[in-house]
Amino acid sequence: MAPWLHCRPMLVLGIESSCDETGVALVEAEGAAVPRLLAHALHSQIDMHQDYGGVVPELASRDHIRRVLPLANEVLGAAGRPMTEVDVVAYTRGPGLAGALLVGAGVACALGAALSLPVLGVHHLEGHLLSPFLSADPPEFPFVALLVSGGHTQLMRVDAVGRYTLLGETIDDAAGEAFDKSAKLLGLGYPGGPALSRLAQDGNAAAFQLPRPLLHSGDLDFSFAGLKTAVLTQAKKLGGDLERRKADLAAATQEAIVDVLVKKSVRALRQTGLRRIVVAGGVGANRLLRARLDAECAQRGVRVHYPELALCTDNGAMIAMAAAMRLQAGVEEARADYAFDVRPRWPLHELLVQPA
Ligand code: KG4
Ligand code: ZN
Predict the structure, then answer these.
(1) Cα 272 from Cα 157, distance rounded (Å)
(2) Is residue 149 in contact with ligand 1, taking CB distance under 6 Å?
(3) Which CATH superfamily is domain 139-306 in?
(4) I need a labelling partner for 91 at 20 to 30 A (CA). Which of 12, 118, 190, 255 fits?
């Protein structure tokens, strides 16, 4: 632990700008206690990208530039703390859109240089992974983590901050991607996950039999590319009451994705013998996934932790939190060279450490 942590609480300002949300947050870390979220603010670009059916990188970067400083001021104002009290500025270093990441990194380093503060680049997925620590009832280590975002689907064993073991991952599409691509095939808007699950509420999941690749593979890997092909085949020949059939297909798609995620999570719990699971990433907001996992885990006496619904998708709080927890754990030090380099492709395995 950094020696100055004993002197007074550490204030970390976190900036997220990897994709289509600008997020800023302030957390306070005192000693070894779980850091506390003081304030956070978010601007979603969903409305701006909706006309294009997906994220337009250039527009995303330009919008981050417009939003990030006003959001930082809003957060500091809400927390009643001036910028001069901040100890560390953290930003998402990757993975994500290069131009979008550069905005957060540039602003963080500029603030750091102007105020002589150290800065810290954070792995976006570690932010998601540690986001359940922002909830009122944070988990205890060790636990299994199901990380389900737009670009990643992974099961991990988490023994401590910075001590992660990959148990299994997708060999093709991510679960979020499966939601997004299927939604597109059904003519639904972006982002597809929430749109598809909304439509699914009116549908009958049993109306279609969709594949569940790798369900019985015996390992903890996932595959969702075949599901997308099956949805495409079914979508092309939808007949009868079209709206009703679309809702049925949406429900069956959601059911197939959730079924695989839940069964593999249960297998991961069985294999590791752990009695705790954390779900993080945008797909973690899915209500069916939560209900199914809750039911399976209740039967097995396993505790499930989720980030608060609003903190499942991208936000600044998880970046500030991950930075604060890495500094507390002493696995990394903030730096004052301001030589920011973003990592648009930053494999999580570079961050993985096998448990001691
Ligand atoms: O973690 P996230 O905000 O961004 C990435 O880091 O990728 O995750 C975004 C993904 C998208 O694929 C989106 O469709 C999905 O999370 N998602 C959902 C729901 N809310 C967001 N998928 C299913 N059900 C939801 N309610
Ligand atoms: Zn994310």
Answers:
(1) 8
(2) yes
(3) ATPase, nucleotide binding domain (3.30.420.40)
(4) 190
